[in-house]
Amino acid sequence: MDIADARALDDRDPLAGFRRRFIAPGEHDRVVAYLDGNSLGRPPLATRDRLIELIDEQWAGRLIRSWSEGWLELPAQIGDRLAAAVLGAAPGQTIVADSTTVCLYKTLRAAAALRPDRTEIVTDRHNFPTDSYVVDGVATELGMTVRWIDSDPASGVTVEQVAETLGDRTAVLLLSHVAYRSAYLADMAAITALTHRHGAVVVWDLCHSVGSVPVELDACGVDFAVGCTYKFLNAGPGAPAFLYVRAEHQDDFAAAIPGWMGHDDPFAMEKAYRPAAGIKRALSGTPPVTGLIGVEQGVALVEQAGIDRIRTKAVELTEFVTALVDVWLVPLGAGYGSPRDPRLRGGHVTVTHPDAARISTTLIERGVIVDHRPPGGIRIGLSPLTTSFAETYSAMEIFRDILDGATAG
């Protein structure tokens, strides 16, 4: 395999044209390859244009009138588009709201309230830290116990492990669909069905799958889900997250953070809280309009590309990197920290090394933007709409040279 092979793959890539729809870094930024789109996606050109329009025409021109001319409807409208494009969810169940952490807190509290006679929350010990912090916090607030699944950090939580941990005291199971370290893709359908057989409800964290892996929330019978929008959806730093509440749970959804936007009539200015019907009761404060514009344009790109084509390219890119890791990096002391089967792998590949922190810093200094996840992981994030095979090849060459130099030294 050489650079010509990589360029040939780019020539055949049906999504190659989407790269031109993103703002490229300037030459002074010395970016050889951006392989961290699973942490922060690149900015779409359309987002810049739409934000300028928002500021010049709506904010400056229509001023406060814009709230009643469309702004207030954005969370639900964009939520429905997101649901149709990537979540496999019918309208009226998804809304763009707060940060992932806040959305997770809301859904966990609501999920626990559905099982008031049960006392345990089950989650993965190696889940993303904010998930664990929220679980601990909710358990403390409600006097519940946390049961931890000891998954393998190089893979993820299996159906068998879930079966061993669930019991008649389990109220809620919280898992990530794609593990943030290894990219392990959990079996959502089987785990959700198993959870329901035990009488519990499930909350899925979709942060590392939304926009990269097709999701079927309705078909899998998922109760609740949350996810960020600034990774594969390219909505921008700190863009608002979304939450999904299955239609059958919405009447019983207890607002952990009741706010005026979740009120049945926000502008009635009533003293007592009266929850809105449907998914809007999951809202709390004023919608972040500038952030919502980023979500809107990121979703539009995914709609146009098609989630199945995105997934196909994600598999091709991760297989491409896997081959180079095996040929170039493993002989130089690196390890492979992701599932080998592409059907069990999300949109990134993790390379392991005892000196991962220093190597990550050196890669970034040489223009290969990756991220380090302790203790020894270097994540190669492959965003199908913005990542080419040629830049990936060049990045892996630099990776090889850094390891070769360390070995020689």
Give the low-pLDDT segments: none
Going across the major beta sheet, what is the strand order? 2-8-7-6-5-3-4
Work out the helicity level. Answer: 25-40%
Number of helices: 12
The major pleated sheet works out as:
7 strands, mixed
User: Mean of residue pLDDT?
Assistant: 96
Task: Supply the key terms.
single chain; 409 residues; alpha/beta; Aspartate Aminotransferase, domain 1; Aspartate Aminotransferase, domain 2; 2 domains; seven-stranded mixed sheet; four-stranded antiparallel sheet; 12 helices; 13 strands; 13% strand
Q: How would you describe this structure to a colleague?
A:
Belongs to the DegT/DnrJ/EryC1 family. It catalyses: L-kynurenine + H2O = anthranilate + L-alanine + H(+); 3-hydroxy-L-kynurenine + H2O = 3-hydroxyanthranilate + L-alanine + H(+). The protein is α/β, with parallel strands linked by helices. The mean pLDDT is 96. The chain folds into two domains: 143 residues, Aspartate Aminotransferase, domain 1, CATH 3.90.1150.10; 235 residues, Aspartate Aminotransferase, domain 2 (3-Layer(aba) Sandwich). The strands form three sheets. The chain has a seven-stranded mixed β-sheet with strand order 2-8-7-6-5-3-4, sandwiched between helices. The chain starts with a helix and ends with a helix.
